[in-house]
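Quick check before the chapter quiz. The format below is the same one you will see on the exam, so make sure you can read both the input and the output lines.
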Amino acid sequence: MKLKPTNAWALIALALLLAVSVWSFWPVEEKITQGLDIKGGLSVTLTASPLGAGELTEETMSRVETILIERVNGFGVSEASVQRQGQRSFLVQLPGVQNAQDALRLLGEPGKLEFVDLTSVTDTATLDLIAQQLEAEYSGEETTLPQLDPEGYEPFMTGEVVTDARVTTDEYGNLAVSISMSGEGADVWGDVTTRLSATRGQVLIALDGRAKSAPAVQTPILDGDTLITGSFTVDEAKGLAAILQSGAMPAEVAIDESRLVGPTLGKESLDQGLLAGLVGLALVAAFMVAYYRGLGLVSIVALVAYALLMLGSLGILSRMNAFALTLPGIAGLILSIGVAVDTSILIFERLKEEIEAGRTHRSAAKSAVRHAIGTSIDADIVTLVSAIALYALAIGPVRGFAFTLILGIAIDLVAALLFTGPIVRMLAEGTMSKAPAFWGVKGGDTRG
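Here is the expected output.
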Protein backbone atom coordinates (compact mmCIF):
# COMPACT_ATOMS: atom_id res chain seq x y z
CA MET A 1 0.00 0.00 0.00
CA LYS A 2 1.57 3.21 -1.22
CA LEU A 3 1.32 6.43 0.77
CA LYS A 4 1.09 9.51 -1.44
CA PRO A 5 1.99 12.91 0.07
CA THR A 6 -1.58 14.25 -0.11
CA ASN A 7 -2.97 11.20 1.67
CA ALA A 8 -0.13 11.26 4.22
CA TRP A 9 -0.70 14.92 5.08
CA ALA A 10 -4.43 14.32 5.45
CA LEU A 11 -3.84 11.48 7.92
CA ILE A 12 -1.25 13.51 9.85
CA ALA A 13 -3.68 16.41 10.14
CA LEU A 14 -6.38 14.00 11.35
CA ALA A 15 -4.03 12.48 13.95
CA LEU A 16 -3.26 15.94 15.34
CA LEU A 17 -6.96 16.84 15.47
CA LEU A 18 -7.75 13.58 17.25
CA ALA A 19 -5.04 14.21 19.83
CA VAL A 20 -6.41 17.69 20.54
CA SER A 21 -9.94 16.27 20.68
CA VAL A 22 -9.08 13.64 23.29
CA TRP A 23 -7.34 16.28 25.38
CA SER A 24 -10.39 18.54 25.07
CA PHE A 25 -13.05 16.09 26.21
CA TRP A 26 -11.36 13.67 28.62
CA PRO A 27 -12.60 13.09 31.27
CA VAL A 28 -16.04 13.65 29.77
CA GLU A 29 -17.79 14.40 33.08
CA GLU A 30 -15.43 17.31 33.75
CA LYS A 31 -14.75 18.68 30.27
CA ILE A 32 -18.22 18.66 28.66
CA THR A 33 -20.76 20.91 30.35
CA GLN A 34 -24.00 19.17 31.27
CA GLY A 35 -27.28 20.91 30.69
CA LEU A 36 -30.29 21.22 32.92
CA ASP A 37 -32.05 18.00 31.89
CA ILE A 38 -28.92 15.96 32.64
CA LYS A 39 -27.47 17.68 35.70
CA GLY A 40 -30.83 18.61 37.17
CA GLY A 41 -31.99 22.04 38.30
CA LEU A 42 -34.57 24.68 37.47
CA SER A 43 -35.87 25.91 34.12
CA VAL A 44 -38.07 29.01 34.08
CA THR A 45 -39.83 30.79 31.21
CA LEU A 46 -40.52 34.47 31.95
CA THR A 47 -42.68 36.85 29.93
CA ALA A 48 -42.36 40.63 30.12
CA SER A 49 -45.30 43.03 29.79
CA PRO A 50 -45.40 46.87 29.85
CA LEU A 51 -45.77 48.83 33.07
CA GLY A 52 -48.93 50.92 32.89
CA ALA A 53 -49.33 52.55 29.50
CA GLY A 54 -45.69 52.09 28.52
CA GLU A 55 -44.32 50.02 25.66
CA LEU A 56 -41.87 47.16 25.49
CA THR A 57 -39.06 48.75 23.53
CA GLU A 58 -35.78 47.03 22.72
CA GLU A 59 -34.10 49.22 25.34
CA THR A 60 -36.61 48.07 27.95
CA MET A 61 -36.05 44.41 27.09
CA SER A 62 -32.28 44.88 27.27
CA ARG A 63 -32.58 46.37 30.77
CA VAL A 64 -34.82 43.48 31.88
CA GLU A 65 -32.25 41.03 30.51
CA THR A 66 -29.44 42.83 32.37
CA ILE A 67 -31.30 42.58 35.68
CA LEU A 68 -32.10 38.89 35.13
CA ILE A 69 -28.46 38.15 34.34
CA GLU A 70 -27.37 39.94 37.51
CA ARG A 71 -29.79 37.85 39.55
CA VAL A 72 -28.80 34.59 37.87
CA ASN A 73 -25.12 35.31 38.52
CA GLY A 74 -26.00 35.69 42.17
CA PHE A 75 -26.84 31.99 42.34
CA GLY A 76 -23.18 31.17 41.69
CA VAL A 77 -24.09 28.53 39.07
CA SER A 78 -21.46 28.45 36.34
CA GLU A 79 -23.77 26.92 33.70
CA ALA A 80 -26.69 29.25 34.44
CA SER A 81 -28.01 31.11 31.42
CA VAL A 82 -30.55 33.74 30.36
CA GLN A 83 -31.73 33.56 26.74
CA ARG A 84 -34.08 35.83 24.83
CA GLN A 85 -36.98 33.86 23.38
CA GLY A 86 -38.91 35.84 20.78
CA GLN A 87 -39.95 39.41 21.43
CA ARG A 88 -41.18 39.22 25.03
CA SER A 89 -39.91 36.08 26.72
CA PHE A 90 -36.79 34.81 28.46
CA LEU A 91 -35.64 31.29 29.19
CA VAL A 92 -33.68 31.06 32.45
CA GLN A 93 -31.85 27.82 33.23
CA LEU A 94 -30.22 27.13 36.58
CA PRO A 95 -28.51 23.70 36.55
CA GLY A 96 -27.89 22.29 40.00
CA VAL A 97 -30.34 24.68 41.76
CA GLN A 98 -32.50 22.76 44.23
CA ASN A 99 -34.25 25.57 46.16
CA ALA A 100 -36.84 26.33 43.50
CA GLN A 101 -38.99 28.61 45.66
CA ASP A 102 -36.18 31.06 46.42
CA ALA A 103 -35.11 31.09 42.78
CA LEU A 104 -38.63 31.74 41.52
CA ARG A 105 -39.16 34.49 44.08
CA LEU A 106 -35.94 36.25 43.15
CA LEU A 107 -36.49 36.00 39.39
CA GLY A 108 -39.99 37.41 39.60
CA GLU A 109 -39.33 40.38 41.89
CA PRO A 110 -38.74 43.94 40.63
CA GLY A 111 -35.09 44.98 40.47
CA LYS A 112 -33.86 46.79 43.57
CA LEU A 113 -31.01 49.28 43.10
CA GLU A 114 -29.93 51.06 46.29
CA PHE A 115 -27.50 53.82 47.26
CA VAL A 116 -26.16 53.58 50.82
CA ASP A 117 -23.95 55.90 52.86
CA LEU A 118 -21.25 53.40 53.80
CA THR A 119 -20.37 55.39 56.93
CA SER A 120 -23.91 54.82 58.21
CA VAL A 121 -23.47 51.04 58.25
CA THR A 122 -22.49 50.05 61.77
CA ASP A 123 -23.36 46.35 61.80
CA THR A 124 -20.07 44.44 61.74
CA ALA A 125 -21.47 41.37 59.95
CA THR A 126 -22.97 43.57 57.24
CA LEU A 127 -19.68 45.46 56.75
CA ASP A 128 -17.76 42.19 56.47
CA LEU A 129 -20.22 40.83 53.89
CA ILE A 130 -20.06 44.09 51.90
CA ALA A 131 -16.27 43.87 51.82
CA GLN A 132 -16.43 40.25 50.60
CA GLN A 133 -18.99 41.07 47.92
CA LEU A 134 -16.98 44.03 46.65
CA GLU A 135 -13.79 41.96 46.55
CA ALA A 136 -15.56 39.26 44.53
CA GLU A 137 -17.12 41.87 42.24
CA TYR A 138 -13.85 43.67 41.55
CA SER A 139 -11.97 40.41 40.92
CA GLY A 140 -14.66 39.15 38.55
CA GLU A 141 -15.07 35.90 40.48
CA GLU A 142 -18.36 34.03 40.67
CA THR A 143 -19.72 34.01 44.18
CA THR A 144 -22.32 32.24 46.26
CA LEU A 145 -22.18 34.83 49.04
CA PRO A 146 -25.54 35.53 50.70
CA GLN A 147 -27.44 38.76 50.15
CA LEU A 148 -27.14 41.68 52.52
CA ASP A 149 -29.53 41.64 55.44
CA PRO A 150 -31.99 44.55 54.91
CA GLU A 151 -31.86 45.17 58.66
CA GLY A 152 -28.11 45.87 58.52
CA TYR A 153 -28.19 49.04 56.39
CA GLU A 154 -30.49 51.88 55.34
CA PRO A 155 -30.41 53.20 51.73
CA PHE A 156 -30.83 56.96 51.30
CA MET A 157 -31.95 56.60 47.66
CA THR A 158 -33.14 53.88 45.25
CA GLY A 159 -32.63 53.30 41.54
CA GLU A 160 -35.84 54.94 40.34
CA VAL A 161 -34.09 58.33 40.38
CA VAL A 162 -31.44 57.30 37.82
CA THR A 163 -32.49 58.53 34.38
CA ASP A 164 -29.34 57.62 32.46
CA ALA A 165 -25.98 55.92 32.92
CA ARG A 166 -23.29 55.38 30.31
CA VAL A 167 -19.59 54.75 29.79
CA THR A 168 -17.50 57.86 29.14
CA THR A 169 -14.05 59.25 29.97
CA ASP A 170 -12.81 61.74 32.54
CA GLU A 171 -10.69 64.83 31.89
CA TYR A 172 -7.56 62.67 31.69
CA GLY A 173 -9.02 60.27 29.13
CA ASN A 174 -9.55 57.46 31.61
CA LEU A 175 -12.70 55.33 31.52
CA ALA A 176 -15.54 56.52 33.75
CA VAL A 177 -19.28 56.08 34.21
CA SER A 178 -21.59 59.09 34.06
CA ILE A 179 -24.98 59.22 35.79
CA SER A 180 -27.94 61.54 35.35
CA MET A 181 -30.72 61.79 37.91
CA SER A 182 -34.23 63.13 38.23
CA GLY A 183 -34.84 66.41 40.09
CA GLU A 184 -35.88 64.61 43.27
CA GLY A 185 -32.82 62.38 43.12
CA ALA A 186 -30.50 65.31 42.44
CA ASP A 187 -31.70 67.06 45.61
CA VAL A 188 -31.03 64.03 47.81
CA TRP A 189 -27.74 63.35 46.03
CA GLY A 190 -26.62 66.92 46.55
CA ASP A 191 -27.23 66.76 50.30
CA VAL A 192 -25.44 63.41 50.73
CA THR A 193 -22.43 64.24 48.55
CA THR A 194 -21.99 67.62 50.25
CA ARG A 195 -21.77 65.91 53.60
CA LEU A 196 -19.53 63.01 52.45
CA SER A 197 -17.13 65.10 50.34
CA ALA A 198 -15.53 66.59 53.47
CA THR A 199 -14.20 63.16 54.48
CA ARG A 200 -14.26 61.48 51.04
CA GLY A 201 -16.85 59.07 52.35
CA GLN A 202 -18.03 56.21 50.20
CA VAL A 203 -21.42 55.56 48.60
CA LEU A 204 -22.30 51.88 48.36
CA ILE A 205 -24.16 50.87 45.18
CA ALA A 206 -26.11 47.63 45.69
CA LEU A 207 -28.34 45.67 43.31
CA ASP A 208 -30.76 43.09 44.69
CA GLY A 209 -28.95 43.05 48.03
CA ARG A 210 -25.47 42.60 46.56
CA ALA A 211 -22.70 45.21 46.77
CA LYS A 212 -21.53 46.24 43.29
CA SER A 213 -19.39 49.32 43.82
CA ALA A 214 -18.39 51.80 46.54
CA PRO A 215 -16.95 54.97 44.99
CA ALA A 216 -15.59 57.75 47.21
CA VAL A 217 -17.17 61.20 46.97
CA GLN A 218 -14.62 63.79 45.83
CA THR A 219 -16.74 66.97 45.63
CA PRO A 220 -20.37 68.00 46.27
CA ILE A 221 -22.65 67.16 43.31
CA LEU A 222 -25.70 69.39 43.28
CA ASP A 223 -27.21 68.83 39.82
CA GLY A 224 -27.31 65.01 39.86
CA ASP A 225 -24.85 64.66 36.98
CA THR A 226 -22.18 62.40 38.46
CA LEU A 227 -18.94 60.96 37.14
CA ILE A 228 -17.70 57.75 38.75
CA THR A 229 -13.99 57.32 38.11
CA GLY A 230 -11.54 54.56 38.91
CA SER A 231 -9.19 52.07 37.30
CA PHE A 232 -11.92 50.55 35.13
CA THR A 233 -11.48 48.10 32.31
CA VAL A 234 -13.93 48.43 29.44
CA ASP A 235 -15.98 45.47 30.67
CA GLU A 236 -16.02 46.77 34.25
CA ALA A 237 -17.21 50.20 33.13
CA LYS A 238 -19.92 48.68 30.93
CA GLY A 239 -21.00 46.41 33.77
CA LEU A 240 -21.34 49.25 36.26
CA ALA A 241 -23.24 51.37 33.73
CA ALA A 242 -25.61 48.46 33.07
CA ILE A 243 -26.23 48.04 36.80
CA LEU A 244 -26.99 51.72 37.23
CA GLN A 245 -29.24 51.73 34.17
CA SER A 246 -31.19 48.83 35.62
CA GLY A 247 -32.73 50.71 38.50
CA ALA A 248 -36.07 49.06 39.07
CA MET A 249 -37.32 46.43 36.64
CA PRO A 250 -38.69 48.55 33.75
CA ALA A 251 -41.36 45.97 32.89
CA GLU A 252 -43.63 43.55 34.67
CA VAL A 253 -42.14 40.06 34.56
CA ALA A 254 -44.38 37.04 35.07
CA ILE A 255 -43.39 33.39 35.37
CA ASP A 256 -45.14 31.44 32.60
CA GLU A 257 -43.65 28.03 33.31
CA SER A 258 -41.21 26.50 35.75
CA ARG A 259 -39.82 23.00 35.71
CA LEU A 260 -37.67 21.33 38.35
CA VAL A 261 -35.53 18.43 37.10
CA GLY A 262 -34.03 16.07 39.65
CA PRO A 263 -30.40 14.97 39.20
CA THR A 264 -31.42 11.30 39.50
CA LEU A 265 -33.88 11.60 36.62
CA GLY A 266 -31.28 13.46 34.60
CA LYS A 267 -28.66 10.76 35.15
CA GLU A 268 -31.09 8.00 34.23
CA SER A 269 -32.06 9.87 31.06
CA LEU A 270 -28.39 10.37 30.19
CA ASP A 271 -27.62 6.68 30.71
CA GLN A 272 -30.57 5.67 28.55
CA GLY A 273 -29.56 8.12 25.83
CA LEU A 274 -25.98 6.88 25.82
CA LEU A 275 -27.17 3.25 25.75
CA ALA A 276 -29.41 4.01 22.78
CA GLY A 277 -26.47 5.65 21.01
CA LEU A 278 -24.16 2.69 21.66
CA VAL A 279 -26.77 0.15 20.52
CA GLY A 280 -27.41 2.16 17.37
CA LEU A 281 -23.69 2.44 16.71
CA ALA A 282 -23.21 -1.31 17.20
CA LEU A 283 -26.06 -2.16 14.81
CA VAL A 284 -24.71 0.22 12.17
CA ALA A 285 -21.22 -1.25 12.54
CA ALA A 286 -22.54 -4.81 12.21
CA PHE A 287 -24.48 -3.93 9.07
CA MET A 288 -21.51 -2.18 7.48
CA VAL A 289 -19.17 -5.13 8.08
CA ALA A 290 -21.75 -7.68 6.88
CA TYR A 291 -22.51 -5.75 3.70
CA TYR A 292 -19.21 -4.08 2.80
CA ARG A 293 -16.76 -6.51 4.47
CA GLY A 294 -13.31 -4.87 4.68
CA LEU A 295 -14.66 -1.50 3.62
CA GLY A 296 -17.12 -1.83 6.49
CA LEU A 297 -14.16 -1.94 8.88
CA VAL A 298 -12.93 1.29 7.30
CA SER A 299 -16.33 2.88 7.99
CA ILE A 300 -16.13 1.78 11.64
CA VAL A 301 -12.75 3.47 12.08
CA ALA A 302 -14.19 6.54 10.34
CA LEU A 303 -17.06 6.55 12.84
CA VAL A 304 -14.61 6.35 15.75
CA ALA A 305 -12.67 9.29 14.32
CA TYR A 306 -15.95 11.15 13.81
CA ALA A 307 -17.01 10.49 17.42
CA LEU A 308 -13.69 11.68 18.83
CA LEU A 309 -13.79 14.86 16.74
CA MET A 310 -17.38 15.51 17.83
CA LEU A 311 -16.61 15.05 21.53
CA GLY A 312 -13.50 17.20 21.18
CA SER A 313 -15.55 19.99 19.61
CA LEU A 314 -18.10 19.80 22.42
CA GLY A 315 -15.29 19.92 24.97
CA ILE A 316 -13.82 23.05 23.40
CA LEU A 317 -17.23 24.74 23.19
CA SER A 318 -17.90 23.84 26.83
CA ARG A 319 -14.58 25.38 27.83
CA MET A 320 -15.72 28.58 26.06
CA ASN A 321 -19.07 28.47 27.94
CA ALA A 322 -20.79 28.20 24.57
CA PHE A 323 -22.36 24.75 24.95
CA ALA A 324 -24.16 22.55 27.45
CA LEU A 325 -25.06 18.96 26.58
CA THR A 326 -28.80 18.25 26.82
CA LEU A 327 -30.98 15.23 26.03
CA PRO A 328 -32.17 16.77 22.72
CA GLY A 329 -28.49 17.40 22.00
CA ILE A 330 -27.78 13.71 22.54
CA ALA A 331 -30.62 12.92 20.11
CA GLY A 332 -28.91 15.17 17.57
CA LEU A 333 -25.64 13.32 18.14
CA ILE A 334 -27.30 9.94 17.56
CA LEU A 335 -28.99 11.18 14.38
CA SER A 336 -25.69 12.55 13.11
CA ILE A 337 -24.25 9.00 13.24
CA GLY A 338 -26.49 8.21 10.28
CA VAL A 339 -25.25 11.30 8.46
CA ALA A 340 -21.65 10.17 8.99
CA VAL A 341 -22.36 6.63 7.74
CA ASP A 342 -24.14 7.97 4.65
CA THR A 343 -20.91 9.53 3.39
CA SER A 344 -19.03 6.23 3.70
CA ILE A 345 -21.84 4.38 1.91
CA LEU A 346 -21.79 6.90 -0.94
CA ILE A 347 -18.04 6.44 -1.38
CA PHE A 348 -18.20 2.63 -1.24
CA GLU A 349 -21.14 2.33 -3.62
CA ARG A 350 -19.62 4.71 -6.12
CA LEU A 351 -16.34 2.77 -5.89
CA LYS A 352 -18.09 -0.54 -6.66
CA GLU A 353 -19.96 1.02 -9.59
CA GLU A 354 -16.76 2.47 -11.05
CA ILE A 355 -14.96 -0.88 -10.79
CA GLU A 356 -17.89 -2.77 -12.30
CA ALA A 357 -17.85 -0.29 -15.19
CA GLY A 358 -14.34 -1.50 -16.03
CA ARG A 359 -12.13 1.10 -14.37
CA THR A 360 -9.05 0.09 -12.40
CA HIS A 361 -9.10 0.21 -8.61
CA ARG A 362 -6.84 3.26 -8.54
CA SER A 363 -8.81 5.38 -10.99
CA ALA A 364 -12.12 4.13 -9.55
CA ALA A 365 -11.07 5.19 -6.05
CA LYS A 366 -10.07 8.67 -7.17
CA SER A 367 -13.32 9.19 -9.06
CA ALA A 368 -15.48 7.59 -6.36
CA VAL A 369 -14.09 9.73 -3.55
CA ARG A 370 -14.40 12.95 -5.56
CA HIS A 371 -17.95 12.37 -6.79
CA ALA A 372 -19.25 10.78 -3.58
CA ILE A 373 -18.03 13.59 -1.34
CA GLY A 374 -19.55 16.09 -3.77
CA THR A 375 -22.88 14.25 -3.60
CA SER A 376 -22.62 14.07 0.19
CA ILE A 377 -22.08 17.82 0.39
CA ASP A 378 -25.19 18.41 -1.73
CA ALA A 379 -27.24 16.15 0.54
CA ASP A 380 -25.76 17.67 3.70
CA ILE A 381 -26.67 21.17 2.53
CA VAL A 382 -30.35 20.21 2.48
CA THR A 383 -30.14 18.84 6.03
CA LEU A 384 -28.01 21.81 7.10
CA VAL A 385 -30.57 24.35 5.89
CA SER A 386 -33.31 22.58 7.86
CA ALA A 387 -31.13 22.37 10.97
CA ILE A 388 -30.16 26.04 10.76
CA ALA A 389 -33.83 27.04 10.38
CA LEU A 390 -34.72 24.89 13.38
CA TYR A 391 -31.93 26.46 15.44
CA ALA A 392 -32.94 29.99 14.48
CA LEU A 393 -36.69 29.60 15.04
CA ALA A 394 -36.91 27.07 17.87
CA ILE A 395 -36.78 27.88 21.56
CA GLY A 396 -35.45 26.03 24.57
CA PRO A 397 -33.74 22.63 24.44
CA VAL A 398 -34.81 22.00 20.81
CA ARG A 399 -31.99 24.30 19.76
CA GLY A 400 -29.53 21.85 21.33
CA PHE A 401 -30.77 19.17 18.94
CA ALA A 402 -30.34 21.47 15.95
CA PHE A 403 -26.89 22.63 17.10
CA THR A 404 -25.41 19.14 17.50
CA LEU A 405 -26.89 18.14 14.14
CA ILE A 406 -25.25 21.16 12.47
CA LEU A 407 -21.95 20.36 14.15
CA GLY A 408 -22.25 16.69 13.13
CA ILE A 409 -22.71 17.61 9.48
CA ALA A 410 -19.56 19.75 9.52
CA ILE A 411 -17.47 17.12 11.30
CA ASP A 412 -18.72 14.40 8.93
CA LEU A 413 -17.20 16.34 6.04
CA VAL A 414 -13.90 16.72 7.90
CA ALA A 415 -13.74 12.97 8.62
CA ALA A 416 -14.50 12.14 4.99
CA LEU A 417 -11.82 14.48 3.65
CA LEU A 418 -9.11 13.55 6.15
CA PHE A 419 -9.76 9.83 6.65
CA THR A 420 -12.30 7.92 4.53
CA GLY A 421 -11.23 9.44 1.21
CA PRO A 422 -7.45 9.10 1.75
CA ILE A 423 -7.76 5.55 3.14
CA VAL A 424 -9.88 4.34 0.19
CA ARG A 425 -7.37 5.85 -2.26
CA MET A 426 -4.47 4.23 -0.39
CA LEU A 427 -6.16 0.81 -0.37
CA ALA A 428 -6.81 1.05 -4.09
CA GLU A 429 -3.08 1.49 -4.72
CA GLY A 430 -2.45 -2.22 -4.13
CA THR A 431 -4.05 -3.89 -1.12
CA MET A 432 -7.55 -3.87 -2.60
CA SER A 433 -6.50 -5.62 -5.82
CA LYS A 434 -4.68 -8.37 -3.92
CA ALA A 435 -7.77 -9.36 -1.91
CA PRO A 436 -10.82 -7.91 -3.72
CA ALA A 437 -13.24 -10.36 -2.09
CA PHE A 438 -12.23 -9.19 1.37
CA TRP A 439 -12.86 -5.58 0.40
CA GLY A 440 -16.20 -6.42 -1.24
CA VAL A 441 -15.23 -5.35 -4.77
CA LYS A 442 -14.50 -7.09 -8.06
CA GLY A 443 -10.92 -8.06 -8.89
CA GLY A 444 -8.60 -6.15 -11.20
CA ASP A 445 -5.23 -4.44 -11.36
CA THR A 446 -4.08 -0.97 -10.25
CA ARG A 447 -2.99 0.46 -13.58
CA GLY A 448 -4.43 3.75 -14.81
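If your answer matched, good. The chain is about 55% helix and 15% strand.
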